[in-house]
């Protein structure tokens, strides 16, 4: 979903229980909030899940999102990463055409963007690329559309810089 | 009526394993549950067998699961205790949804137990399987699927705790049938703590001080109280605050009774069908204190219009997400309304003792003068008739005959608004209706829940001929349990509220709002063994009400044939602002 409203990355810790993900997803759809991406996995403490949600909205909407998330009984902690300094990374796998002239071109582009070719076949490469969402977008932009066979993106993960820690 | 269960003092332990169903029953005993409203079915048969073997709580057999939910909900609304309902899997659970959503919208604490197909059959489209946890998720405060008999006791403890604490709400516990047959020792946890759930109760003292200063210095202060005051049992504290500050107060539909309607400082209900003085004062005040209310669309009308008058807003609420949701709040105070109001009162006393509490008394006098000018519009006056029974008149007489002391439940429609406007509630938890979801059909089951909780009280169900038919089957339940409810049906042969909107917005095209083929309600009541009365003349209204309430042990169904074309005034049309009301006096009722 694309909107002009500012993008926010919300990070949260919740009880690692069946249905926890659907509570969050349901909240966003029921209240009409945007979700650009949502990633979830267990943390080093297996009773907790870490979720990163990329959303967008006015300040008032983001404030409501944070409050509504906090209201979910399973949610332990919520943080709007945009409230401070943070790092954002996303992983993308791109399968591209690698025939004839494309073969050299793809290798070059991959190097420029500091990606890695992780699979090579007769007619294609698979490139792995990590970075901020904008960097991944830029990579896609710079490729010849006709060369892109498939893209897979994980959605963003984020973490606070320095001492900014979200932990129970 | 069941005896009140005794509180066991020692830590309950069963030395030998018992079934999951028995454990569930023991949990309900531990929670001092008096009534379980329910309906049996395959997935809950073990539980019903365990109920058969106990007599600490009474099970009430309704005629439709929706009614079980509403009755448990009203039991809670009228007592403050957690309501309990029990339904079977599949259709039992889906029938319960309307009741759960109704309770959720009005923040009513309930625990709902639903049966589920056995764990090994989940996901196989088994007979009477549905994803109850999934279906109810958006309309419960929380829900659980119990997958192990060992988890039943802890889950029930959590369910009651979550339902009743913080901003209350319904909690559903879904229990597969095999779990209720499995064996386990019973041990009920003495306390619960959840790392992910710690509702704030105490308000921030700095904010409370700031709020008080703003209110004291205000030229046109106003208090707007909501359902949170009733649910939070904060009525006495609110009365004290208003008395010591001498400032005007209005209430939402859900807050009625939280402050006595007979008090001078009470301006009546506000909102879409609120009084002229309440809506005008809400619009014109310079400092507004909102207590346990949520600025919803039926209350403040058009938000832009509301905000076009500058004012400072203070908001006390237990739920942080209620604050600044629709209207930006200047002084938020998150906390239990009772605790915050108590702190405010204490602060006033301390400041008064040291002569530090200075109010803007001149401005306040001028403010009341203005309010009284608005009052003189007498916006609730209506034209009496010798020919037709005016619905407002029935409610006025109901108030007189019951001395204002009855529990009044209502359905949804014009009759609900008339009940809210003309039955002057002086006590909290007396006015029981569906404010948030606006569920037609709640009236009769609500009256049942209230009458079970208060066997000797006068309980009136104000309803319409449309709404009553949505749960009419409960006449049977009322007969079985000898509930002496009085149904006050304002029979206008229309889905009146729909007709009213069609008159205002659709040039009188009464699309599907006429109620045709109505039953003979007197005979219907009699068929269930009740007393039925039809009243057609204004001069018979009072006599009929007296006669009905004199039949202390009988269920009486009063079918008042009312003026078909009466509308509810004042009225703020959709999208209009608070001060843009239409009054009855603006429109000759006959013109419509
Ligand atoms: C379950 C449900 N369906 C539809 C509505 C919409 N609705 C609101 S008021 C109303 C008319 C109610 O008619 P009646 O009970 O006769 O009351 P009256 O307005 O005539 O007093 C309707 C259909 C509703 N609130 N609830
Ligand atoms: Mg009607």
Q: How many angstroms separate the termini of chain B?
A: 49 Å
What class, by secondary structure content of chain B? Answer: alpha/beta
Computed over alpha carbons, the radius of gyration of chain A is: 18 Å
> Regarding quaternary structure, how should these chains be classified?
heterodimer
CATH superfamily of the largest domain in chain A: ACT domain
Q: What is the makeup of the main sheet of chain A? A: 5 strands, antiparallel
Q: What Rg of chain B is obtained from the alpha carbons, in whole angstroms? A: 25 Å
- Give the number of domains of chain B: 3
The shape of chain B is globular
Order of helices and strands of chain A: EHEEHEEHEEHEE
- Average pLDDT of chain A: 95
Overall 3D form of chain A: elongated
Amount of helix of chain B: 25-40%
What is the percent of helical residues of chain A?
25-40%
How many runs of DSSP E, i.e. beta strands of chain B? Answer: 20
Look at the structure and name the CATH superfamily of the largest domain in chain B.
Thiamin diphosphate (ThDP)-binding fold, Pyr/PP domains
**Structural class designation of chain A:** alpha+beta
Number of separate helices of chain B: 22
The residue-averaged pLDDT of chain B reads: 96
């Amino acid at each position: 979903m694309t909107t002009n409203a500012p993008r926010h990355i919300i990070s949260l810790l919740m009880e690692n229980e069946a249905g926890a993900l659907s509570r969050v997803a349901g909240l966003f759809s029921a209240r009409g909030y945007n979700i650009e991406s949502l990633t979830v996995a267990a943390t080093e403490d297996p009773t907790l899940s870490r979720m990163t949600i990329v959303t967008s909205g006015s300040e008032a909407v983001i404030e409501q999102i944070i409050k509504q998330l906090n209201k979910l009984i399973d949610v332990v902690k919520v943080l709007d990463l945009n409230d401070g300094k943070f790092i954002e990374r996303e992983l993308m796998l791109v399968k591209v055409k690698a025939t004839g002239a494309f073969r050299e071109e793809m290798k070059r582009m991959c190097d420029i963007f500091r990606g890695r070719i992780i699979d090579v076949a007769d007619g294609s490469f698979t490139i792995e690329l990590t970075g901020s969402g904008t960097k991944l977008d830029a990579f896609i932009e710079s490729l010849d559309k006709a060369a892109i066979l498939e893209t897979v993106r994980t959605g963003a993960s984020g973490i606070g810089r320095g001492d900014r820690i979200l932990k129970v | 009526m069941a005896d009140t269960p005794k509180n066991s003092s020692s830590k309950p332990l069963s030395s030998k394993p018992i079934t999951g169903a028995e454990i569930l029953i023991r949990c309900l005993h531990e929670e001092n549950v008096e009534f379980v409203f329910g309906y049996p079915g395959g997935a809950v048969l073990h539980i019903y067998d365990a109920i058969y073997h106990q007599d600490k709580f009474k099970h009430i057999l309704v005629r439709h699961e929706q009614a079980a939910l509403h009755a448990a909900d009203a039991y809670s609304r009228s007592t403050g205790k957690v309501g309990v309902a029990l339904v079977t899997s599949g259709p039992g659970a889906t029938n319960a949804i309307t009741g759960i959503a109704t309770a959720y919208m009005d923040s009513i604490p309930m625990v709902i137990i639903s049966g589920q197909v056995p764990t090994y059959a989940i996901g196989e489209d088994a007979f009477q399987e549905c994803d109850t946890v999934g279906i109810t998720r958006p309309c419960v405060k929380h829900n659980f699927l119990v997958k192990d008999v060992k988890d039943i006791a802890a889950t029930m403890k959590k369910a009651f705790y979550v339902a009743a604490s913080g901003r209350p709400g319904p909690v559903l516990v879904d229990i597969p049938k095999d779990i209720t047959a499995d064996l386990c020792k019973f041990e009920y946890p003495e306390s619960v703590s959840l790392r992910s759930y710690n509702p704030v109760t105490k308000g921030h003292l700095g904010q409370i001080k700031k709020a008080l200063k703003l209110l004291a210095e205000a030229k046109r202060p106003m208090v707007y109280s909501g359902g949170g005051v009733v649910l939070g049992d904060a009525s006495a504290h609110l009365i004290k605050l208003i008395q010591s500050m001498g400032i005007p107060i209005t209430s939402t539909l859900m807050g009625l009774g939280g402050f006595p309607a007979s008090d001078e400082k009470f301006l009546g209900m506000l909102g879409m069908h609120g009084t002229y003085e309440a809506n005008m004062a809400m619009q014109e005040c310079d400092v507004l204190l909102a207590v346990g209310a949520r600025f919803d669309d039926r209350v403040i009308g058009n938000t832009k219009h509301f905000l076009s008058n500058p004012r400072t807003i203070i908001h006390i609420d237990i739920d942080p997400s209620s604050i600044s949701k629709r209207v930006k709040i200047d002084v938020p105070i998150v906390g239990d309304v009772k605790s915050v109001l108590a702190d405010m009162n204490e602060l006033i006393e301390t400041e008064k003792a040291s002569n530090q509490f200075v109010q803007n008394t001149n401005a306040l006098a001028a403010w009341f003068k203005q309010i009284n000018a608005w009052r003189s519009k007498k916006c609730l006056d209506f034209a009496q008739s010798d020919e037709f029974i005016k619905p407002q008149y029935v409610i006025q007489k109901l108030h007189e005959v019951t001395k204002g002391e009855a529990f009044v439940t209502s359905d949804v429609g014009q009759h609900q608004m008339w009940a809210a406007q003309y039955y002057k509630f002086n006590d909290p938890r007396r006015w029981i209706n569906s404010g948030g979801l606006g569920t037609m059909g709640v009236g009769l089951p609500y009256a049942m829940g209230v009458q079970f909780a208060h066997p000797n009280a006068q309980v009136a169900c104000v309803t319409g001929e449309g709404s009553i038919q949505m749960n009419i089957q409960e006449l049977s339940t009322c007969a079985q349990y000898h509930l002496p409810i009085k149904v006050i049906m304002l029979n206008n042969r229309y889905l009146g509220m729909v007709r009213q909107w069609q008159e205002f917005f659709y040039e009188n095209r009464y699309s599907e709002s006429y109620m045709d083929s109505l039953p003979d309600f007197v005979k219907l009541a009699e068929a269930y063994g009740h007393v039925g009365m039809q009243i057609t003349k204004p001069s018979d209204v009072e006599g009929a009400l007296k006669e009905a309430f004199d039949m202390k042990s009988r269920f009486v169904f009063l079918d008042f044939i009312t003026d078909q074309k009466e509308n509810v005034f004042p009225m703020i049309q959709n999208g209009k602002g608070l001060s843009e009301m239409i009054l009855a006096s603006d429109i000759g009722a006959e013109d419509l």
